[in-house]
Amino acid sequence: MIDRYSFNRVLRTASSVGMLASAMLVVTGVAGATMLNVSGGGTFNMGNFSVQVLGSPTTGCINFFNGTPPTGTPDACDQIQNNSYSVNAPVDSNLFFLGSQGGIKDIPAGTTSIGSFISTTGVPGVINWDLVNLVIPNQIPCPPTGPTPASCAVGPFVFTALAYNTSTTFASTTVSFTTNLCGYTGSPSTGCTPYTGVFSAQFTGLNADIQSLINQSLLPGGITDSVSATLNPSKAPSGVPEPASTVLLGSGLLAVGMAFRRRFRA
User: Fold this and answer.
1) Which of 91, 182, 202, 227 has the fewest Cβ atoms within 10 angstroms?
2) pLDDT digit string (tens) for 204-262?
3) Rounded to an integer, what distance in angstroms lies between the CA atom of residue 257 and that of residue 250?
């Protein structure tokens, strides 16, 4: 179970992404690479790692770090070191080693591209995924009305209310965002395989409902929580996003900070 304090350090994502919007127009650094053989499905799961999100316009960061709260401790935010995670089930055993370790890079303010955003050593050797962009879902006002389960979306973030008790304010909510990735082996020279990666965290406890989480995301101090991700091959085109996609990403991220501030002040 994740308490309110834990949540208060993951959902800062929402208030920080507006500040990080110009920094996170990430494009793939792969001009071409060896595509992955996904005949076995290509599924890849990541766990046993955490994320810290800071909202400063100059030092803001989506900072992945080793371990899970309360034992894990946030480190410096940069794109040099790979923060470790574990390869969890289910995975495509034709490509990946269950239980092995891999690395994921941070997304600091000022980022213009993230090559080898996620990496692991698999059956064909070193496997890398470049981060192409964040997926902007259909925008549904938060919080959703009616009984649970129910979902809403702001910018790239989807909030799903799984349970809520109005008398005790005990709730369970999942927060997720989706990425477009480009997977390959070897040096970037002959093509890559489009992937979709979904990152998520679940919050359970008092005041873990959607509106409370949104309000708490505006508090200072950043947000830290354990996170997991599932990567699967997709039909999305690989390569550099078109200008229209870049504009959509920037405006979508900026909308998160603006919408959260309006709701917080209401």
Assistant:
1) 202
2) 888 788 888 777 766 655 667 889 999 999 874 444 443 333 333 333 333 444 444 44
3) 12
**pLDDT tens digits, residue range 90-108?**
999 999 999 999 999 987 7
d(CA 243, CA 46): 31
What DSSP string describes 92-157?
Answer: -TTT--TT-EEEE--EETT--BEEEEEEEEETTEEEEEEEEEE--PPPB-SSPPSSSSEEEEETTE
CA distance 104 to 84: 7
Q: Do 9 and 223 meet the contact criterion of CB atoms below 8 Å apart?
A: yes
Band (189; pLDDT cuts 50, 70, 90):
low
b or e along 138-159 (b: 16 or more beta carbons within 10 Å of the residue's beta carbon)?
eeeebbbeeebebbbbbbbbbb
